[in-house]
Design a protein that fits this description.
Elements (H helix, E strand, L loop, with lengths): L7 H14 L3 H15 L5 H12 L5 H16 L3 H5 L11 H14 L3 H14 L7 H18 L14
Helix pairs in contact: 1-2, 1-3, 2-3, 3-4, 4-6, 6-7, 6-8, 7-8
Amino acid sequence: MTETVADPTLARITAAVGAFHNGDHTAARADMIDLWGEIRPDGDPFHRCVLAHHLADMVTDPAEALMWDTRALDAADVLSDERVHTHHESLQVAAFYPSLHLNLADDLRRLGSFDTATAHLEDARRRVDLLADDAYGAMVREGIARVAQAVETRSTEPIPGAPGTV
């Protein structure tokens, strides 16, 4: 993705996510927590949304993931397309919601809150058509199907390969 405006905060988030995926889990999480302290809960909603969404994927405790995923959704709710266009002109806030609701559904499922998980799956399904027919869209659609299957069987076990299964 090409940035339209250099953004040092997003660069730091990207670096921490990269470190996490390269196996430096503890340092990456610490960097993200430090950065959250700098952004603050009332800071730029785009930064809050992106950071919280990624940080939720870096934790294994579903209650902690739920906290971060809720923060990401709350930030998206006050985020504008104008703001995300400063990062990349093709982004639309509405397209964030399928993944945000999917992650909340999975957190809630892992905590045994199947009815609320189902409600978030329905929200994700209602908005999944906003995603392109590309690898990312396919990943989110597959995630919805996998979490829905786990909800149906009332499984609270982590789904192999899903976020938070470090």
